[in-house]
Sequence to fold (903 residues):
Amino acid sequence: MSNAVAHADEHAHAAHHPALQHHFDTMAQQKEAAVVGMWVFLLTEILFFGGLFAAYMVYRIWYFDAFAEASRSLSLFWGGLNTAVLIGSSLTMAMAVRCAQTNKRTATVNWLVLTMVLGTVFLGVKVIEYADKFEHHHVPGYNFQWAAHEAPAAGEHAPAALAASEGAAAAEGHRELSLNADQLQLTTQIYFSLYFTMTGLHALHMIIGIGIMLVITWMAYKGRFDEEYYTPVEMAGLYWHFVDIVWIFLFPLLYLVERHV
Amino acid sequence: MLDKLKIPERHYLNNGHGLASWLLTKDHKRIAIMYLISISVMFFLGGLFAVGIRLELATPAGDFVSADAYNKFFTAHGVIMVFFFLIPSIPAVLGNFLIPPMIGAKDLAFPRINLLSLYIYWIGGIFTLYAMLSGGVDTGWTFYTPYSATGSNSNVVPVALGVFIAGFSSILTGLNFIVTIHRMRAPGMTWFRLPLFVWAHYATSLVQVLGTPVIAITIVMLGVERGLGFGIFDPARGGDPVLFQHLFWFYSHPAVYIMILPALGVQSELISTFSRKTIFGYSFVAFSSLAIAVFGFIVWAHHMFVAGISTYAAMVFSFLSFSVAIPSAVKVFNWTATLYKGAISFETPMLYAYGFMGLFAIGGLTGLFLATLGMDIHLHDTYFVVAHFHYIMVGGAIMGYMGGLHFWWPKITGRMYSEFFSRIAAILVFVGFNLTFLPQFVVGYLGMPRRYHSYPDEMQVLNVMSSAGASVLGLGYFLPVLYLLWSLKNGEVAGANPWGASGLEWQTQSPPLTENFIEAPVVDHEPYEYEHVVAKEKHLV
Amino acid sequence: MSGHVSPISLYLTIFMALMVLTGVTVFAAFVDLGQFNFLVAMIIAGFKASLVIWYFMHVKYQSKLTKLTVATGLFFLVILLGLFLVDYGSKALTGMPPLLN
Fold:
């Protein structure tokens, strides 16, 4: 009973915030519900990407050499740059939430815009990388070609071409591969199938995130938030940080399979 | 006394009229009604395909439809029944309607997300139905690769996409329930005062939230393989089709618990109410729901014993599968103990509850046959499996759904249905069900494989029994449509608590107000205390 | 009523730590650690993710329920990956993968 009295008491004294929905008693209850709800949603996201990680794990164990070879064909520069950009956008997002918490409207809008700019930079870099894959026939499907026949003539570094002949591989300091050229042609395709599915879904999440942030920024600009009610900014932040975390794992898994040979 | 009862002047059904007041509602009760209508349509469509299957199997020759059409029939039956009827059935209809009043809340935590989940369900359903009508799918509801990825030339991607979309509806419902049960309980409604129905839905929601994303990503991988020519599961490119099965069953085995757990929750309410006794071993029944939900995630590979998983893994999964029997048995034994020396009455919901107990026990125990490595090699992909999972899904989940629907119908509509016809329907369902599926255990054990449209002559007797039983079953499911609709206008007014049940939802008027309670309830007693109910009833009438 | 407000210096520290760890993980990938390359990469990634979850996502200041939710997600991810390994790990004993046989 004492619980009930305290409950009713709280209800009577709290001034009704315009953002309080009718079925909640207090802003605190509403906010707590939103935070938990968002985390439960992120929990589904963990398992969504978890399925991909499971597939990745299986094939990485089976076809490690193909994964190592294919991974070396990715540009460490672009991948590293994107990691830095995304971590930076997480910082700006955290700052946006902080400014919303402390009721700084203009600063909130600015940090949100900066976050979106960094997100767009990330996607731009992704476009450059994808374009490169198309050029080299590294997109899985009928035109997939691992050891490009014309590549060595152009003077490009093509690790698979080297791997195909063991002598050249030894000269380069490569260890002997357990897969021959035909097997590499097949199994690197699995790597790139996973590469495109993983990075593609990650990019899709970023595009959705930027879409959400456009709405949130507009709401912040219109002054919808104050230190009592900034839940949408915080939720968008949680989502954005989650996307960042996925990339934190994708980067070593896709770019750094075996770089030391 | 019954003459004095009147439908209350103000309730959720007459609070706003017209299509927009339904389509834009945020009231969990109206959303539940819309779900009820939607899944009933789906149940009817899925049933139509079942009729086609049983007609074909009435004779040994493949004479009713071609083998190709038969493949599409059982696929359509499976996809519609699993993804569009069974998974949303109890949670989205009864759970949606009852969880807020049961815990003393005005609504679910996220009413708009609740409405969104209904729209997502509709979009997924329309997608799937369109794909089914414009050519159909012939992969079976399991979409196994490599056939689904490279072999089949039917509408795999659109149907899979429909399932993918409907999955989000399921996730959002589960998410909403979890947050609601955690954060919206009335003062005094502690965890161990929650009705077991709510505990069961909490466990169900966990499975929905944790399992569904994995089928979503599996469908995405299947989609990019089939649509874009990626090679993930393609054995011709070094891929592993068994990987698809692993990912598929990581969701689809727990999905069975999405179907059965809410029915177990309904069962606990029915058994307690109609024996007028506190449930025996409340906390054991409550935690066994959670245990089933968690164990459900560690047993999936028993669907794949002959698919090429390693012998060692098969042993591990066989052993783990047996562990699910423990919490399931806890429930059945505790219900039995609840009945012991209870003041048992035999109203329609209780008839379903009795039917449920027997059928669930048979379904569960035959599951142990299939979890046994040696037995499974003989029984895999035979009608024994078909009979087993129908005992769980139809004998368990749908019996629970029907029992729950009859139990809470007076709460939902404010009126009673015909007790006479509803008892007849309950008996028809029980008899028809057993006549349909008991012979399938035998015919499966004799070696009849599933998914073929013809079979050896000597199996005809058992198959004709099965087809005959299916028509009785169909009648048993059709009868409620008539008398429940009839009751909407002509049924006796039920009053707030026609069964003398103990739950908080019976302490408000029937049909309830939009905000469920006139003033926020305060809970000051333990669950299933019937001496408490009598005292309150006077106050209500 | 408003949630815990973290100092800007904390955010900057976390950001710097994440950047440094990114450098470390790239560096570690170029050192031949044999089987341990993967383990090191995953430990670093896991640590980075924890920093983001704990400080940027404010889980440190959230209710026990939120912490439990995060833990549940990780627990079931471990079940997913772990039981896959039960099969695929023991398949190595029985002559797999198919392509190489």
